[in-house]
Amino acid sequence: MEPVRTAAQLARNASYGLSSVDLGTRNEALLRIAEALKASMDAIVDANRKDLEVAKTAEISPVMIKRLRYDEEKIEESVRSIHSLVEQEDVVGKLLSRTELDEGLVLDKVSVPIGVIGVVFESRPDALVQISCLCLRSGNAVLLKGGVEAKETNKVLARIIVNAAESVDERFRNAVQLLSTREQFQELLRHDDLIDLIIPRGSNELVRSIKASTRIPVLGHAAGVCHTYVDRAADLDMAVRLCYDAKVQYPAVCNAMETLLVHREVAPGFLPMMAKRYAEAGVKLKGDEEVRGIISAEPATEDDWSTEYGDLVLSIRTVGSVDEAIDHINRYSSHHTDAIVTADEGTARRFLDLVDSSSVMWNASTRFSDGYRYGLGAEVGISTNKTHARGPVGLEGLVIYKYVLSGNGHMVGDYSGKSARKFTHRRLA
Questions:
Q1: Are strands 197-201 and 116-121 parallel, antiparallel or unpaired?
Q2: What predicted TM-score, i.e. pTM, was given to this entire model?
Q3: Residue 199 and which of 24, 134, 219, 428 are 20 to 30 A apart at CA?
Q4: What residues does 262 pair with on adjacent strands?
């Protein structure tokens, strides 16, 4: 059997055992991983230093270097995230509903792990820790493929996680596996009989390529084209702070703002203040004709409105109403995260109701769209899908359900024909 299929089969076998691992044991495994990360901090940082050196010689952008860096501070953040996961309620084995079909015939709907998940991610080594722990906590096996730029860091992290989990319970063996090449992951995409779900985290090109290459369901987003709309009734000082945070705090991530929409009534007062703050941070501005009449900016093209820059670049457009802002967002956004800044509750509610995105926000930065910040403990990624899970995908997005029917010799034949018994279909829970 070829190596990739062998790995997938081992993961499938592991997934059957994981479904029987109790919450206490799963939590113990996560806590053991957290301890091992802290104990191995020097080895992790050393491996990451090697990756950073290679990345710098390859002339990777400073923004991407920032995503690649996995230092003591980020390791501590990962440890805190793991402890937060441990505190989450169990998502496995939850009774979702109970229905009496007839006397003595009861149907339960129960949450269960998805099974085997394949995840590909770029740059960020912390994603490996998040994803592995989320999968273990939710009873899933996972096969991971990280970016080549984080090769050394990922190898060390995978070894730490595997050893720590297996030291708690042998049922965790083969539950976390690291694929080493892009070709291996491409091969994995062909094994729809063994893999239940693919989750890509990376560029637009990566996600679209995967969606086109597999019959396995794909959960993720193809781009993060996020907007903030500054309304005519906005507190402009608040708007400046929020729009600065949404663009500058971490421009390389998918929930960073890429397009700023401004009501033309407040544009003359707001845009010069905003442009001054952006200039201090080195943000390159692109604007429509009206914007360029107020501040200095390059001309924005039609393509700019649907571009995820992932860098200190921002497109700006003026609009005449909240409805015009909504129309622009629904046309050009990637349905990821979009925000409105306004003191008018009616306008805010219209925006929140009509913008078709996985997260919508009122007087808050788009950067809040994140599993940890939402209180999910962590996330495997952000989904713009309209099936199964949407938005930041935490533990609840990694389970599905099955029906469990309990009877006492009940037969379908008794419910057909002239003397058929009638179903009660009485909801019990």
A1: parallel
A2: 0.86
A3: 24
A4: 230, 318
